[in-house]
Amino acid sequence: MAEVPGEQQSASDAEMTRRGFMFRFGLLFNTVAAGLMALPIIGYVASTLIYRDWQQWIELGKVDRFPEGQTRLATYRNPFHVPWSGKVAELPCWVRRTTGDKFQVFAINCTHLGCPVRWFSESGLFMCPCHGGVYYEDGSRASGPPPRGLYEYEYKIKDGKLLVKGGQIPTLSEPV
Amino acid sequence: MSRMQTAAVWVDQRLHLTKLFESTAGHRVPASAHSWWYVLGSATLTCFIIQIVTGICLSFVYVPSASQAFTSLEYLNYEQPVGWFIRAVHDHGSNFMIGLMTLHMVQTFLFGAYKYPREMTWIVGVLLFLSVIGMAFTGQVLRWDQDAYWGLGIGIAMMGRFPLIGPDLVHLVLAGPIIGAETLSRFFTLHVFVVPGLVIALIALHLRLVLTAGISEYPEPGKLVDKATYPQRYKEILDREGVPFYPKAISKDMIFSALVIVAILACAAIFGPKGPNGVPDPTLIHTVPRPDFFFLSLFAVFALLPPYMETFLILTAPVVGIAILLLLPFLSGTGERSYIRRPVAILSIVMIFLTLGVLTYLGESSPWSPHMDAWSGVPTPVQYVKGRSPLELQGAVLIQAKQCRNCHSLDGTGGKRGPDLTGVANRLTEDQLIRQVLQGGGNMPAYGKHLKPAEVTALVAFMRTLHPQLEPPARNSQVPATPKG
Questions:
Q1: Average pLDDT over residues B47-69
Q2: Strand partners for A174
Q3: What is the pLDDT of residues A97-150, one digit of tens each?
Q4: Cβ within 8 Å of A, B 289-348
Q5: CA–CA separation, B372 vs B382, rounded Å?
Q6: pLDDT of the residue at B469
Q7: Percent of chain A scored above 70 by pLDDT?
Q8: Which of A173, B115, B366, B411 has the most CB atoms around its CB within 10 Å?
């Protein structure tokens, strides 16, 4: 049906013109398409908010590697890493064996702001190089800015091997 | 017309370039705006362009993969022709950009250029400030060395202190469970695509606002900004003394920008690129991570804050600071513009810079960090082992062996975390020394569990000899100075 150019403009608000309908349909369709586009993108970028099951038993080595009454550094490969991670997936932790099968496994991260703590066996202290946090042998806070003692991993001994439950970085709100 | 002129006219007829020029580079500004104080904005833009160009060059070689980043940076430093220089220009360019941007902000604040009708220019400027700091932080991470790795951990730990959303924030930024390859990729994307896009959009907006609101005239004390009268007054200034920015008011900007470029190149040639400082292997725990210079003041703050204040301040201080910056044009949007009549403005700037300067100096020397190798690497000064009894010499051995020197100095050498022990016998009596060693206190841990009683005796005996020759050691007032009888 051929349209006379002048008639279009005089259509009243109550009538739905073809142009008006197509405009509203265009808006609606684009909203739906935008939603379909946005959901996967948000899911991709914020996938860490949805999938977050990073806890696994990790082997630290034979129990004999850790003599009684000593604190030793152990390293493990974080089970949750991407194939091209390289050295960044190798994480250290401090293993203290008190007696027999009693252990304390401390995360390397200072509880203040996460720098790596160093063990000194002569004075029995962990010292942090960043802001001066110090902890006692049993992990409790000795001095400096840290708000609490060292983070401790849950551990178990299986077949003569020491295992810890880890997999994600410890922070004050998610201590391991 | 020559062929060149014909071609030029053809292009201009299609692009309308001359009309565009009149409304941008050729727009009129007050003659008083041709001042050395006004060159800092364009200098910041110059730095940004340098960063983009050198950044593109670096991304031709840099590999943003956790296992390859360090190697590609070493390649840039030692194998890629002129690679070290491009890295150095990018590194020093970022320092210059932060410095010039801050000075630009201070200048517009002191000259009241954020007042009516330029409030939005200021607000967009604050958003630019925050974005550029974001660029600095993400760029630092891309160096992917030990400073970057542990520095990132510090940022993550701060986010971990947020109530409720802490873990979500941490893992969103990490893009995974730990600081890993996913994290580097995410920061690379932020640093190269997302934040620069934001910065470019904000710069376009900022420049548009500069054009629509006009460059402010040089402030004169007594000439107050009043919403009713200012637009008319500004128009009169432009009519009376307005000159086209190009070519009449651009020369100082040009000279200063060229100076900045030469200065960046000189710094790059003389000081070279920064790092990478050590392979980012988390198992290498004998590391002393430090941030880039503009974060040193923050580093000092976190070392010196008492623990009970820390989470509260981390959550509120940035919000309050940014709110004040953004709301500034609404807090003092009219009135006096010249800094000569604004003592609060000058005082604020002086206090802020003094605080930042002192904190940066402290962050540079970081006296709170134990000097980790002092116990094994800094020997006892010779004069303190001369003429001592065997018991006292045992004490001298213990002061080294028990890591006391990590925190304490003798004769100025050693750690600075605790007091210098050079004159300690004059400050503490024997009982006080014994108590301090066993129980700790102040910022010192207790050593009671790791010292046998004989060791404590030896240690205290040695410390009792640490006094100037002619002054006797401090004594308990109940002990007579001279023996009776």
A1: 96
A2: A171
A3: 998 889 999 999 999 999 999 999 999 999 999 999 999 999 999 999 999 999
A4: 289, 299, 302-303, 305-307, 310-311
A5: 21
A6: 86
A7: 91
A8: B115
> d(Cα B271, Cα B291) in Å, to the nearest integer?
18
Q: What is the ipTM of this complex?
A: 0.87
Give pTM, 2 decimals: 0.90
Contacts of B181 in chain A (CB under 8 A): 81-82, 84-86, 88-89
| Angle between helix B296-304 and helix B343-365 axes, rounded to 10 deg | 80
B162 touches chain A (CB under 8 A): yes
Q: How far away is chain A from the Cα of B170, in angstroms, using its nearest Cα?
A: 9
Residues of chain A positioned with their CB less than 8 A from the CB of B447: 123
| Distance in angstroms (rounded) separating the CA atoms of residues B180 and B275 | 20
Q: Is the pLDDT of residue B480 over 90?
A: no
Residue B87 tokens read as: 């890295």
Facing residue for A145 by CB, picked from B167, B305, B444: B305
Sign of CA dihedral B300, B305, B309, B311: positive
Q: B468 — alpha (psi -120 to 50), left (phi > 0) or beta? A: beta
B23 touches chain A (CB under 8 A): no
Q: Token digits for A81?
A: 């890493």
Residue B166 distance to chain A (closest CA, Å): 6
Residue A156: strand pairing partners: A163
Say if residues A107 and A152 touch (Cβ distance below 8 Å).
yes
B280 close contact with A: CB closer than 8 A = yes
